[in-house]
Design a protein that fits this description.
447 residues, alpha/beta, FAD/NAD(P)-binding domain, D-Amino Acid Oxidase, Chain A, domain 2, 2 domains, eight-stranded mixed β-sheet, 25% strand, binds flavin-adenine dinucleotide
Length: 447
């Protein structure tokens, strides 16, 4: 490794890091920008584990702006720049019982006021459009034991769908970043930030001591080398605490394991062929009225992905930055227990969709949400009292659909701008996602 000093080093080449690196380089063409990752390629962390779904059916202003501007940008990349992201508006279908519908009425009104393209379906409509669904469990004792709720209404979101997270990460952001002269360094883990006094070292033991102003000038890699930069941007997602806690920075991230299960079978053709919802002629991404259990249709190979489920009682995984075993870090573990599908999600889903009865699991995998437990939105901030550091993390399970806006806001913070220009000319006050003047409104559309 050369002794070269970069203007900016982004640590973490997930979708948030690579979008940030792209906008920093694009708006500062003369600056040297490096992005690095412990994995062998960009997007190989939790970005690779995601379901790749997007939606604009939010009622909080922040959620709505972050997701709808990002998705509009991804549409532009696909339609105008002709980079195929396999982005398809397959629609989202939220199934609800009567009580959930009443609870969500205010949220639905806000969506309609904001011109979000939604439609409310009533039970008869749902049964007609989605004939494989069981909607009534009044006389089903087994289902009542499982706390299964009836399906009385559904919210259908039209401008919602799926895209390939790997393609937007690598085929667009990484490729364009490199074209602009941005540099990449993979298979390199950062073990720690080196905290220095700002300005000259005075030779006091334990520098920087309390009264000295502080700055990050370099990081130590797993190869024992030091890499230098004027500014470091930490975009390490669920691993945020490992680098930040040892220098006293709390990014609000709690890592939570989330699993996806895949069932593939020719019997599913019947379910996956559906002419009522979208141009793809398949069922929508469908969320069931119990603990947010969902299915994603994958029509071309007769499979569905299954996720969601209650997280109450599930552990957050804390790794101790001082004694971490990098060869066996639980946050790198992408395996999941197939029995969780059998005893949890399958029991619920096979009541709603009997077509799934006795179909074996084909595969499963897991990743970690970087959850901001306070308001479930990203944090983009410069920690108090430490120069040369910006933190971009805590996407909380919706980082794919918000990534473009997050990258632009991080760039605006780096350049000292008060407002970020999001796609479509939308202005966003940078401090809204910071820690000191945070201004994130409450999301009411929660099922
Ligand atoms: C099962 C599952 C389903 C999901 N489904 C969706 C969905 O449908 N829609 C949606 O919008 N979001 C979804 N998400 C969330 C989405 O995947 C994340 O919000 C998004 O990928 C976060 O991007 P990131 O760049 O912050 O994190 P990551 O992609 O995890 O990137 C962080 C990077 O930092 C690197 N790194 C960490 N520590 C170090 C270090 N010390 N040195 C060097 N490199 C380091 C990692 O290797 C990693 O590549 C899902 C997540 C999971 C787990």
């Amino acid at each position: 490794m050369s002794e070269k000093k970069y203007d900016v080093i982004v640590i973490g080449a997930g979708l948030l890091g690579i979008a940030t690196a792209y906008y920093v380089k694009k708006n500062n063409p003369d600056k040297t920008v490096l992005i690095l990752d412990k994995e062998a390629s960009a997007g190989a962390g939790n970005t690779a584990q995601s379901a790749g779904m997007y939606r604009d059916t939010f009622c909080s202003e922040v959620n709505l702006i972050l997701s709808s501007t990002s998705i509009d940008f991804f549409r532009y990349v696909q339609n105008e720049l002709k980079i195929d992201l396999t982005l398809k508006d397959i629609t989202y279908l939220w199934l609800m019982d009567r009580e959930q519908f009443e609870d969500n009425k205010k949220a639905i009104e806000v969506m309609l006021d904001n011109k979000i393209r939604i439609e409310i379906l009533e039970k008869e409509d749902i049964e007609k459009k989605f004939p494989e669904l069981i909607t009534n469990f009044d006389n089903n004792e087994d289902a009542q034991l499982l706390n299964i709720k009836n399906i009385d209404y559904a919210l259908l979101g039209y401008d919602c769908g799926e895209l390939d997270a790997d393609k937007i990460t690598r085929d667009f952001y990484e490729t364009e970043f490199k074209k602009l002269g941005g540099e990449t360094l993979y298979s390199t883990r950062i073990n720690r930030f080196i905290l220095d006094p700002k300005g000259e070292k005075l030779g006091i033991p334990g520098e920087p001591v309390g009264w000295q102003e502080k700055k990050i000038n370099s990081v130590e890699t797993d190869k024992g080398e030091y890499i230098h930069a004027e500014t470091f941007i930490a975009a390490t997602g669920a691993w945020a605490n490992e680098l930040l806690l040892p220098i006293g920075v709390d990014s609000r991230v709690m890592p939570l394991k989330k699993s996806l299960y895949r069932v593939q079978h020719t019997r599913l053709t019947e379910l996956l062929e559906n002419e009522s919802f979208n141009e793809e002629k398949t069922i929508p991404f469908t969320i069931f009225p119990v603990h947010g259990v969902y299915i994603r249709p994958v029509k071309y190979n007769n499979s569905i992905w299954i996720g969601g489920g209650s997280v109450v009682g599930k552990p957050y995984v804390i790794t101790d930055p001082e004694s971490i075993d990098y060869s066996d870090n639980p946050l790198d573990d992408n395996e999941t227990d197939p029995r969780r599908y059998e005893y949890d999600l399958y029991l619920i889903l096979s009541e709603y969709l009997p077509i799934l009865k006795d179909l074996p699991l084909t595969s499963c995998w897991a990743g970690y949400y970087a959850v901001n437990t306070a308001d479930k939105n990203p944090v983009i901030f410069k920690p108090d009292g430490i120069d040369g550091l910006i933190v971009v993390t805590a996407a909380s399970g919706s980082g794919i659909m918000k990534a473009d806006a997050i990258g632009r806001i991080a760039e605006a913070l780096y350049n000292g701008k008060k407002h970020a220009d999001l796609y479509g000319g939308v202005e966003f006050k940078v401090s809204r996602l910071g820690l000191k003047e945070r201004d994130v409104d409450k999301e009411y559309f929660v099922i």
